[in-house]
Amino acid sequence: MRSKDRISYFYDGDVGNVYFGPNHPMKPHRLCMTHHLVLSYDLHKKMEIYRPHKACPVELAQFHSADYVEFLQRINPDTQHLFPEEMAKFKLGEDCPVFDDMFEFCQIYAGGTIDAARRLNNQLCDIAINWAGGLHHAKKCEASGFCYINDLVLGILELLKYHARVLYIDIDVHHGDGVEEAFYFTDRVMTVSFHKYGNLFFPGSGDVMEIGERKGKFYAINVPLKDGIDDTSFTRLFKTIISKVVETYQPGVIVLQCGADSLAGDRLGCFNLSIDGHAECVRIVKRFGLPLLVTGGGGYTKENVARCWTVETGVLLDTVLPDEIPDNDYIKYFAPECSLRIPTAHIENFNSKSYLGTIKMQVLENLRCIQHAPSVQMQEVPPDFYIPDFDEDEKNPDERIHQHTRDKHIQRDDEYYEGDNDNDHSMDDV
Q1: Would you say 146 and 135 are in contact if contact means Cβ atoms under 8 Å apart?
Q2: Tens digit of each residue's pLDDT (9 = 90 or more) over 350-383
Q3: HSE-CB of 284 using CA atoms within 13 angstroms
Q4: 3-state SS class at 403
Q5: CA distance 266 to 256
Q6: Suppose 130 and one of 112, 290, 331, 422 were both cysteines; which one would form an S-S bond, judging by CB atoms 3.0 to 4.6 Å apart?
Q7: From CA 210, how far away is CA 401, in angstroms rounded?
Q8: pLDDT at 422 over 60
Q9: What amino acid positions are annotated as catalytic residues?
């Protein structure tokens, strides 16, 4: 039985087969784990499943500089030593390493978000999901924070063709700096980021007083938080702020970045959110009944990322999932309890009521500076990109996924670590 909302879900098995390196905390295989959980709960039967097209360089260059896109397309692990100046210029290196099939990886996750935006634009669905997307740190001319191409900016640019106002919401533990920066001078996109701030936590931006400039003044909202915030504090603040934002700004569409590194126990995070608390934010946003594009983002404890995004897929489908995880190809990684929920960690909550009250008051005061939702004189809508050199072997982005995709999941022996053999912890927090 289908959800009353028409939901499009984008996935390509190849996106989970790339490998950032043995010491790198970003594990794209978490996307395969998520997809198999979605399948094991039969959620795919309630959605339309699509394989995204691979975004072409001309599409990526709608935001990113052409020379940066060209370099990403050209560079590979065997040749990177020949281009030290370009590597430094485009900020490729330790945090953003060059790895096999890197550009194709970018094409797939960016293509998913672009396709999701186009389906929403054409009213072919009410909600579009791309868990592979959400790489919010990438800048116009450089990589940053494990992100190479900013699919969110590209998706929002698509949505702006049809919508006067786009609301972007980010619940990743890290500040959504790349998206905020891209739209810092416009009132057509309001960016709202809830994140850890202070103590040199990456990326170091996102103070409550960063509010946008020029026409964009008051259209960037930052909610800086401290270590250990829990479900009650987070969801109460989230609901208050987002409800006021939607009432004031009156967006035509919402983009929600669901970074799972804000969960308790994440290897790079410092919050104490349960999966249910994280998912409550998705539920709050869904209740507004606006067209909704949902992406993934950060998340470095793979099994918890998969749990979280599966639960949130269920929330978007109005489906409550049994706590016992059904058998699937990754079941051993959810052992021994094989439970969908995770316990919260025992982290002290440094977010006092007075601190959160001060932040809330500052944000609401900034919102009061917006007299009304900005009006935009809509002009002729530019067409979706037609790529004349379309490869006949490329899969139709509207093709339903069948057994072919399930057969493409290849596990790497060096992708997973247990106990003392887990060397992800040697990576500095980013």
Answers
A1: yes
A2: 999 999 999 999 999 999 998 665 565 555 555 5
A3: 23
A4: helix
A5: 20
A6: 112
A7: 43
A8: no
A9: 137
